[in-house]
Structure formats: C-alpha cells, structure tokens
Amino acid sequence: MEVDREDGRTQNQLRPLACSRNVLHRAHGSASWYQGDTKVLAAVYGPKAGTRKNENPEKACIEVIWKPKTGQTGKLEKEYEMILKRTLQSICILTVNPNTTTSIIIQVVNEDGALLPCAINAACVALVDAGIPMKHLAVAICCCVAKSGYVILDPTKLEEQKMKSFAYLVFPNSVHSVLTGGSVQGEPMEHGIITSVTHGIMSVDDYFYCLERGRAASAKLSDFLRRSLQQHPTDSSKAG
Amino acid sequence: MEEKQSGSPASLIDSTVVPGDVVLDLSSMTNQTIKLGGGLRQDCDAISVMKAGTLRFSKPNKYWVESSQKRYTPCVEDAVLGIVVDSKADNFLIDIKGPVLAFLPVLAFEGGTRRNIPKFEVGTLLYLRVVKANFGMNPELSCTDASGKAAEFGPLKDGYMFETSTGLSRKLLSSPTCPVLEALGKKLSFEIAAGLNGRVWVNAATPDTIVVVANAIMNSESLSGAQQIIMVEHLLKNIQ
C-alpha cells in the first residue's frame, strides 16, 4: 500500500543516520547519534569506585542522567532515565567490575521524533567507546501505527503526533559468529527483544506487525552500527 | 538478518569485532588449552567478545582483543603512573585511572622498614608496578621490581604529566622504539616515563622542550609511522 509521507520517504525507510565516537574530550566515552533532525549526545563516565545507596554492591551500577534541550527535568525525563537504565543494564555485563558506578549522561541537542530510540543508540555507542564490557549491542527503532492500520518507521515529530499509537522497540544487534547456527532454543539471537515501550492504543496484530517491521529495519541499523564502530574513533560515519 | 557464518576462527583474527561476536567454538576444540586475554569471555562453549576492537592471535594459543580506551584495566606486572589520593596507616591510596583505587603498602620500597616510611603528599606522582590485580579487590602496587630493588620506581620530581589513551601508551612502550620518540630523540634531550594506564611524564632542561615533546606525543595518536616523523620535523622546524 503506497503511503504519502511528508518528507517523501516510503513506509519502511529510515531517515539519514550519522554517528561519531569520541566527540567529547573529558568524558571517558562519548558518542553523537543523528537520525534526520533528531540529535542526541551521550557521554559515559566510569567505571568509578562505589555504588549508590540501595544498589547491589556485588554488581556494577549504571546511572543515567537525561538532560532535555530546554526546561527543567520532570517526570518524562525520569521515565526516559528509567527505561534507558533498564535497557543498558540488560546489555552490560555487570559482574566484571563489582561495586562500581558507570554514569551515562544524555543531552538532547534537537528533538524531531523518535527521541528515545536515538538516545538508546547513542548511549550504546558511547558505552563501546568507553570500553564498558557488554554482552552484545542494542539497536532501537520507533514504529507508528496509523488510524487506517499501516505502519511507518522512524517518524518525525509531526508524524508521531498524528498517529494513533507508536512503539519504541530495542533489539539485539546481529552478530558475526564462527558457530554454525548459533541460536538460543532454536531461534537466532536477533529474534530476541530487549525493550518495548508503547504509547496509545493498538491491536495485538498491529503490535506484532510493528515488531516484524522493526526487526527487519534493525538489521540495517545493525550494519550501520558495525561500520561506524570499525572506523577510527575520530572519524564520523554517515548513512543516507 | 542472518548471522554471517565464517568457516574458521582465522577469518575473524585481525579484523574489527564488536561486543557479541562469537570468535571461537570450543566444542570443536577438545584437549586444547586456550589463553584468553582482555576483551573476551567464555559463555559455555563459545568465546564471545566483550569490548570492541581488533581481534589478535599469538601462537600457540593466545587470543585477545586490542582496543584503546581512556580508562585502564589493572593487570599484573604493568608499569603505571599513579597519583597519591590519601594515606592510611598501612597503605597509600593511589589513583591509577582504573575502576577502583589501588593500594601501595608503606613497606613496598627498597630498604623499607617501619622506621623510614616515606611521606608522600596528596597529589604526588609515582612510577609504580602492579603486583596484584584480583577480581573484586583493590589492586596492589609496589615501588620495587620483582627482586626488591628500586629500579627507577618511586616519585617523579619536576617535569610535566599528561594523559593519553591506553593504546598510545602501549605504542610508546613498544619495541622497536616508536617513530615519534626516535625522531624527537635525535634532536632533543629529554626524560620520559610512560605508564600503561594512559599517563605520560616528560622532563627536560627547558620548558620549551617539554612542551614540544608533549605536543608531539599527543598529536601522534592517529598518525602512521611516516606521518609521525613528518609531524615531528614540522614541530622542530618551528622552534629552531
């Protein structure tokens, strides 16, 4: 079904991606991730000694601070911090450096739709840049469901507001493996899902369709991520 | 979205790997001892990558991931530059840019007894050797070599200390001598102490020389051997 999107993209087309590592001088790891006009900067400090009060001292602790473009931090920022913290806790190996804290600071430079997926991607690259041990990487994507039932990927802010509902989905990246058929209980690892956040009302079928479209696009994002990590830290990588 | 399957581990060696890539399948290698270095972990029968970098192999059986970070992971027998943060009854607390502070026992000096404990102020720069680096414990350092002699370890007076990445400090300490140090050594006279934790100390007769040497080293991070020599010649031309 042909769908008219304002910027001329097709249903499954993502906006131009750009990613740079090591952009900040003082941070131990940093990355910037641009998806069209949505721009996010992530900085990682750590691991540093000591955990916060109620955290388990036998594991590393991850602390996320979200700084919006304008205004003070409120409930929405606290929600984003919590979602990011849970996502990153599941991809980092927390037992390597017990009783330490890693701080991740997300600064929103510009907001134009799909903000949380952009931040998750930026945080993942910043963690790799800082050398924090991880089980695998995460790629995040936003899928919207319109009133007439079609699904579009990577919406702009206007599209997000017009849609009936949308979902932020985070998948593990595709791995290069020497194992033949490396899989967990018969399914390849990319069929897993790390995080799913939905807004609005959508039917179960719509949700599964979103998952399918998102998973297909996550392969492209995964390739882009691998290419940008292969380059030297001071170069930036772009995909149109 | 399929995993790229390579027929043998040799195809991933010397290529860039990202967290999650499986580099070895142990089920096909029975009765062999494999030594794993930094950046790799064992996941039942598969060896997978924790940190992004270049996979290296050294005969007969050592695998590791080479990467360059701003923070340091303490390893035994490394020479590091530490800064005194605090002193207790039995130990000095030293910052070596690792996840936790390291301890330097007050008796770990050549001819050290309870009567001649050195007094280091907070902020003193020391050249030290890592003696113990066990999981979950603070690393232990020493100001003597393995046989108990002082061997250049101890406080570094005067001079200038700057921070680099761990990759650059490994290059500075490699043999044959790094091109930038050789080119500088032909024209200038200076003293240098490089720690594997990303700290370098330079001392020379005049501040001009110290600044030129420090700038040359900091600029040489992303340059090849020939480019480093050209850069050093350019810098030296401007001061003479």
UniProtKB/TrEMBL annotation, chain A:
CDD domains linked to this entry: RNase_PH_RRP46
Coiled-coil region(s): none
Residue intervals of the Exoribonuclease phosphorolytic domain: 13-133
Record GO terms (molecular function): exonuclease activity; RNA binding
UniProt keyword terms in alphabetical order: Exonuclease, Exosome, Hydrolase, Nuclease, Nucleus, RNA-binding, rRNA processing
Pfam annotation, one family: RNase_PH
Subcellular location: Nucleus, Nucleolus
Main location: nucleus
Superkingdom in the source lineage: Eukaryota
Protein's GO biological process: nuclear mRNA surveillance; poly(A)-dependent snoRNA 3'-end processing; rRNA catabolic process; rRNA processing; U4 snRNA 3'-end processing
One GO cellular component term noted in the UniProt record for this chain: nuclear exosome (RNase complex)
PANTHER family for the chain: EXOSOME COMPLEX COMPONENT, EXOSOME COMPLEX COMPONENT RRP46
Entry similarity comment: Belongs to the RNase PH family.
Protein name: Exosome complex exonuclease RRP46 homolog
Source species: Herrania umbratica
TrEMBL record, chain B:
Keyword flag Manganese: no
Domain of life: Eukaryota
Pfam families in the cross-refs: KH_6, Rrp40_N, RRP40_S1
Subcellular location: Cytoplasm; Nucleus, Nucleolus
Chain ranges of the K Homology domain: 159-207
Gene3D superfamilies hit by this protein: 2.40.50.100, K Homology domain, type 1 (3.30.1370.10), Nucleic acid-binding proteins (2.40.50.140)
Single GO molecular function: RNA binding
Keywords: Cytoplasm, Exosome, Nucleus, RNA-binding, rRNA processing
The UniProt record lists the keyword RNA-binding: yes
A GO CC annotation given for this chain: nuclear exosome (RNase complex)
Stored InterPro entries: Exosome_RNA_bind1/RRP40/RRP4, KH_dom_type_1, KH_dom_type_1_sf, NA-bd_OB-fold, RRP40_KH-I, Rrp40_N_euk, Rrp40_S1
Chief site of localization: cytoplasm
Exosome complex exonuclease Rrp40 N-terminal domain mapped to chain residues: 34-71
One GO-annotated biological process of the protein: exonucleolytic trimming to generate mature 3'-end of 5.8S rRNA from tricistronic rRNA transcript (SSU-rRNA, 5.8S rRNA, LSU-rRNA)
Protein family membership: Belongs to the RRP40 family.
Protein name listed in UniProt: Ribosomal RNA-processing protein 40
Organism of derivation: Herrania umbratica
Organism taxonomic ancestry: Eukaryota, Viridiplantae, Streptophyta, Embryophyta, Tracheophyta
